[in-house]
Amino acid sequence: MNLPKSSYKVAEQVGAEIARKGHVLVTGGTTGIGEYARRGNEKNNGINISLIPQLKETYNYIGKYMDIIISTGFTEEGRIAIMINSCDAVIIIGGSSGTLIETLTAYLLGKSIVVVEDTGLTTKNIKKIMDAEHYLDDKKLVRIHFAKNAKEAVNLAIKNIGKGKSSAGLPPVK
Asked: Is 130 a domain residue?
């Protein structure tokens, strides 16, 4: 993935900030952005949960810094619903099509969503598909927030937990 080097630094800072706030970090368990977030979290004595698509022994892209590994048995894309449903908030850093799927899934589930600006193409593309009020469609399930840095992203994510509504009409789990 061709992301700005600063994206990895932001990911590590987000992981660290999540740990400092006493929250648990949930990632897909792969290398890249998630691994940097887990590293920052671990350096600050946080807890890292990783949902990988298959068995640890057979998965080729497994990263480091994982306290709890859950093998979902699903494909890369199939595990996204489980991963996002396990979170209270989603912080978007860089990414590609998988990150976009995670964003849309979080939106449909009414999860708190924060995009860290200038961290990659997906973060730019999210702005292109939302309306002026920062919603992805006319259902207005959850407003998407934007942050300039890791600390702001984590604070916004926490502040907006439980403020969305799911596409099924049920409130998100608090």
From this structure: yes
**Looking at residue 71, what DSSP letter applies?**
E
Residue 120 belongs to some domain of the structure = yes
- The answer to whether the beta carbons of residues 71 and 47 sit under 8 Å apart is no
Query: Domain with 130 in it: what CATH number?
Result: 3.40.50.450
Using a cut of 0.90, tell me whether the model's pTM lies above it. yes
Spatial strand order of the sheet with 89-92 comes to 89-92, 112-116, 144-147
Give dist(CA 31, CA 96) in Å, integer: 14
pLDDT of res. 53: 84
Q: Which one is predicted more confidently, 61 or 73?
A: 73
Helix ranges restricted to H, 86-172: 97-108, 121-129, 150-159
Structurally, the chain folds into a number of domains equal to 1
Q: Which domain range does residue 140 map to? A: 5-159
The single-letter DSSP state of residue 88 is: S
